[in-house]
Structure formats: C-alpha cells, structure tokens
C-alpha cells in the first residue's frame, strides 16, 4: 500500500470545467513506453572494491539498481523474500540484511490542487474555471521581463513574504549555472514556461517507464497529475536562470517505489545536480533512501524534502531524517506565518515556507495552483540555487548554507505558540536575508 499524504482529488464539476484551449488529452502525454521492472522488496548491501555487480546479484538473488563501489554500497531490487519471511543471507559485514517493502512506498506531498474538490471548497476564485489557458505573454516570465519578481503576479504576496525582491536584487545571476533535480511525477516538457529552462535530454530520465522522456502523464482525474510541473515551476519562480533536471519517479496517482527514488537520487548526483528537491514522503522509514541522501550529501549536493501533510508532528521520511549540512526538511505556513493546517511540524524542520495556493503551470499549457508542503520545499530549493549561483562571501562554503538559512529565517514561534504549537514551529524562510548573509555584493 502506498504511504502517501496526498489529499484525494475529486472529479471536475461543471463549475470547475477546464479551459483546454482545444488541446485533447492525448496532447498532454508522451508515447507509452514499457514500464521499468518493479520489485516487491529492496535492500542496501555493503560492497568492497573487489566485488563485481554480477557477483553481488548472484549472492543476494536480486538486481543491483544502484552500484557505488567507491562509497561501499549497492541498492538491490528483489522479487521475493527468502522462505519463511526471514533473510537467510548475511551482508558482507556478517550482519543480517534488512529487506524492505518497495512498491508504492512514496507519495507526493501536495495536499490539494485547484481541480480537486478539497481546494474548490477552501478557496474561492473569480470566474468558473480552476485551470486557465496559459497566455502567450507568460512565456518569458523567468527573465523578469514582465517586471514582476517571481514572474507570476498571483504569487506576489508569497514572494514579498519571503523577501524575494531583496534576494533578486542581491543575486543578479538568478541561479545561473545551477542544476536543480526535481524528483517527482515528471513535468510537462512542452509547456511554454519550461522552454529554455531544462537541462539537456542526456540529463533527464523517467524511472517509471525507463526512458529518457520524463513527461508528466495522466489526466485531471488523477490525484497527482500536474504535481511535478507545479513543483518545478516554483524552483524557477525563485531562481529563474537555474536549470531544472526532471526525474520521474511517481505515477499520476502519486505513488512511487523506493528503488526508483534511490535511482533518481543516484542519477541526479552523477549528472551534476547541486540541489535535489523531494516533494514526496513516506510514513515508513527507509534505510535505502537515507543511505542515498547521505551519499548525495557526501558529494556536496543539497537535498530539500517536504515534511508531509497530516497536520501533526508525524513528519514523513526522508524529511524526518533531515540532519547535517546538506539536508533540510520544509513545512508550510499561510500568508500570515501561521502553520498551515495540513502541514506537519516539529524540531526536525529547518524552515517553513508559504505553501498555500501557489500558482504555476499545469500540463497542457494551462495555469493553476496547488497547496501543500510540496509547494514550500521548492521555494527552499530555489533559494539554495540563488545562493550557489553567486560568489559566496569569504569564509562561507556551500556546506554552511543550511545553517545560514536557518539563522537568517524569520522567527515565527510567538505567533504559532498562540495557536497551540508550542516551540515546534520556529522559522520561516527569509530568502532576502539569507542571500545578503551568504553572498558577495
């Protein structure tokens, strides 16, 4: 069963009809490919420099999906547990090998979209539509050419809240040269908003279909349709000259396997990502994904993870494991800095960011909004891209940026204490103060 924190999307009512601009549903999907092999279980094993991939696969009876001899580990996909449900093999260290469930363990952390019944009930908008035709004039917003910081006027309140105008003035490269991996449902590769903003095709992959075209698939009746497209756009609204590395690991219903997430992290590191955004989570701790995040950190790659949407202190994984100098968990606040009702919270969260009604592109050259901690995380990922695109101040290294972001965030404890959250909702992203503290003028 998928361990997802996504809200259930309702069908479209007449009052929420989409203006499709004459595009049929077939226009929104890439040609179908054979699905990648899926595995019931996975395990992370210790390997030594003398081991071969074939030898390890024979020893454990699985497929080596991630092979990292220099780091001393491999991630295996397994079709079966040993007889009796117990693993008879030992790791090369002599320790029993832990086998974990693999299928649909992860889910997207977007709680609602404009076409879901939940969002329609909570947000009233002018007009009957909830996903609007993308106007041609919006295609150049990343350059700032329309005079709106962040590019999309509908998000101006959020951008002012986090100090984005100050950040843009202090970081004129706007993330240039920085690759940000968005590990998600894929994106609408043909959307006008992404033209010129993606890495080359050699740096993209679909781990669901096992092909080099990570096109968002599905329809508006699917729970997670459009999730990755919105998430990627938020990174670009913060850091418009960064490059998005789209890596598809989630299906249109929001589910994804541990091994595909592990492979995507491995791919992102190998292909030069400086930041990885994980707007997904699981209620089950994953040793495999923790190992992959630690590996990314060892290579100097920042990993940003959404905290989950159950509204309590049960932060999802991998955000629950956030620690060290290269990983941060992100929760959501509203425009007054109060914790979003849906957002998880607690001491593991590095910063909060505004994750309610965040506008961006929708597959099919459309334009709409999502809410969720999934929308807060890419604001932080984009903020790191802004900093990494600039020359850092003397004495400041990339590994110092997480702590600098926390230190320069806005203190929102007193406000949230009044709502009963104690000391567990602490900081809200202030990207302006962060950039001023981290980068040279």
UniProtKB/TrEMBL annotation:
GO molecular function, one term: serine-type endopeptidase activity
GO BP: any one term: proteolysis
Peptidase S8/S53 domain boundaries: 175-422
InterPro entries in the record: Peptidase_S8/S53_dom (IPR000209), Peptidase_S8/S53_dom_sf (IPR036852), Peptidase_S8/S53_subtilisin (IPR051048), Peptidase_S8_Asp-AS (IPR023827), Peptidase_S8_Ser-AS (IPR023828), Peptidase_S8_subtilisin-rel (IPR015500)
Keywords assigned: Hydrolase, Protease, Serine protease, Signal
Entry superkingdom: Bacteria
Region forming the signal peptide: 1-21
Active site residues according to the UniProt entry: 184 (charge relay system), 227 (charge relay system), 374 (charge relay system)
Family: Belongs to the peptidase S8 family.
Protein name per its UniProtKB record: Peptidase S8 and S53 subtilisin kexin sedolisin
Organism: Deinococcus irradiatisoli
Source species taxonomy: Bacteria, Thermotogati, Deinococcota, Deinococci, Deinococcales
